[in-house]
Design goal:
71% of the residues lie in helices and 0% in strands. It has 319 residues and is mainly α. Helix 12 (196-218) runs antiparallel to helix 13 and helix 13 (239-273) crosses helix 14 (276-291).
């Protein structure tokens, strides 16, 4: 029991989370003053997802998980899954963006929104944001972050340097997770631009990469690859067994998010195509079209054309 009750930390991140929660509530109240009751209820229900995401973030970085992650690789893997999968999915589902803007003093929320969307000063910012939320950029960034930080060199560096650990490793996990899950979860005012077929492909590729990392750390490794766990005082769990357990957690628990999302995407494709067979035929035809040199210059038509762009999420109806 002491493993769960001891070693809680109370660093500045807790203060930051409280400030964000208060700021968010101010924005919700301001939006409620000029919104219809049903819109207010919808935002309040979405806020439960947002607060759940904040709670998961606090558990990942303030609870004994963070303390024991320095000694056990498998605990570190649990922490990584919370930062890349659990917390981002909940926060994206909560769609906190507009309430956070509306909490700015006076009419600043609307002016800042207008300035960011149309101002000349924000053109580089808009270009960067537009680039980062592109579907395959987000997917590639998510997988690159996952691969790089599980390489022995970067991983050991982060374990030996708390600034790198917190502000580079953990921050990049969370930011890449938010960008990735924006492609799959409706989060007003962002609109999903990835077609259903591409969503399925992205989830499969991501899952395969996670399995590859897990296999590299367990099946294909003959010993511990992270030097930081070689001589941890007071730890009796062998480093290689610890590494194998962490790899199993990464493999199995990652599927808890990837597979249900893939099922939702496949069901949407079935709804669009009318049957499982039609959806599979679409997938196979798209693969054949891409693989055939003769078809590279051929215009796409019919059902394939219908999958080129997923209908955008409906915009926030406002007041």
């Amino acid at each position: 029991m002491s493993y769960l009750t001891n070693h809680w930390s109370f660093d500045p991140f807790l203060i930051l989370a409280i400030v964000v929660a208060v700021w968010y509530e101010i924005g919700l109240r301001r939006l409620a003053r000029r919104s219809r009751p049903e819109r207010t209820r919808e935002r309040r229900l979405r806020s439960l997802w947002f607060y759940a995401g904040l709670a998961v973030l606090l558990i990942a970085v303030e609870s004994p998980l963070d303390y024991w992650a320095d000694d056990y690789f498998f605990v570190h893997m649990i922490q990584h899954l919370l930062l890349m999968f659990a917390a981002p999915t909940l926060i994206v589902a909560g769609a906190p963006w507009q309430p956070l803007l509306d909490a700015l003093p006076g009419r600043s929320g609307r002016s800042v929104t207008r300035g960011v969307l149309t101002g000349g000063w924000s053109r580089p910012l808009r270009a960067l944001g537009s680039f980062l939320v592109r579907p395959w950029v987000s997917v590639a960034l998510f997988n690159a972050v996952m691969i790089v930080w599980h390489l022995p060199g970067p991983y050991d560096l982060a374990e030996n340097n708390q600034v790198v650990h917190i502000w580079l490793m953990h921050a990049s996990f969370f930011a890449a997770g938010v960008l990735f899950w924006l492609q799959f979860i409706p989060s007003l005012p962002f609109r999903r631009k990835m077609p259903l077929l591409s969503q399925a492909g992205a989830l499969i590729v991501t899952n395969v990469i996670m399995i590859g990392i897990a296999m590299a750390l367990s099946i294909f490794a003959s010993g511990s690859v992270y030097s930081v766990y070689d001589h941890v005082p007071g730890v009796t769990f062998p480093p290689f067994q610890d590494q194998q357990l962490g790899a199993a957690i990464l493999w199995v628990c990652g599927d808890f998010w990837a597979m249900p999302t893939l099922i939702v995407v496949v069901r949407a494709m079935m709804s669009t195509e009318g049957s499982v067979g039609a959806a599979l035929e679409t997938i196979l035809n798209r693969g054949a079209l891409r693989a055939s040199p003769a078809a590279w210059g051929r215009p796409r038509s019919g059902v394939l054309d219908s999958l080129r762009a997923q209908p955008p999420s409906p915009p926030d109806a406002g007041p």
